[in-house]
Write a structure and sequence with these properties.
binds NADP nicotinamide-adenine-dinucleotide phosphate; alpha/beta; 7 strands; Rossmann fold
Length: about 250
Amino acid sequence: MSAPKKVLLVTGGSRGIGAATSRLAAKAGYRVAVNYASNEAAATALVEAIEQDGGEALALKGDVGNEADILSMFEKVDRTFGRLDALVNNAGVVDQRARVDEMSGARLERMMRINVIGSMLCAREAVKRMSTSHGGKGGAIVNISSIAARIGGPGEYVDYAASKGAIDSFTIGLAREVAAEGIRVNAVSPGIIDTEIHASGGQPDRIERMRHFVPMQRAGTAEEVAAAILWLLSDEASYTTGANLEMGGGR
Ligand code: NAP
């Protein structure tokens, strides 16, 4: 009898880096819970494409900036798949270009609520299910950070960069906290990746403008990031925890 398939939840798994991760994970044999915030059409199309390829996926609507949504998302994974083996904390937002002296409290609150608190709450729910100290079988978490945490995002979005700095600290701390409980926690820090996030922050031309500052002179692809995420989730990375893999094309 073949081993039961592992279950992966990808937050923001319906577009961009999350979608590439969902697709690659399904190909690797995971059953994938594809979370999204509002674009149901994109999530449904991705789930259908995965199923047509012979994979198994479930679209899960929920705002990671809302604790009740997170709880019901994990409960749906429990009911549908009956197990959880891995989490990719990928859902994240940017905002319009602004200096710190122009930022409203509401903007900062949204940024931290989605990017930081959302990732921490999802990790909490995953740990409750995967930690051997809670009766789980272990698992893996990959947090999506950004090289912005190191560069700081001056004049563009220091708030976003700071939210990813928080993700970096959280990755180290949680990795050490649950290392003896069968859970590995790692991060990837992409540079400029060709997705729709730049347009949603009001900068549709950002890649063309910024790619000259990248030593490789190009943006990365969502698939390149997904490959690193899948490796960190896999048993091949069995002694890797608390790591943060930069993928900035040399930047
Ligand atoms: P994207 O193309 O804009 O896709 C965002 C995904 O997240 C969509 O599936 C979206 O769902 C979902 N989402 C947004 N807000 C959400 C919320 N509150 N709750 C649940 N889901 C939510 O983004 P991306 O470029 O792939 O970025 C993914 C991650 O990589 C983010 O954490 C981002 O900060 C990080 N990153 C990106 C880059 C880059 O250059 N692209 C670089 C460094 C780091 P809907 O379709 O429903 O909106």
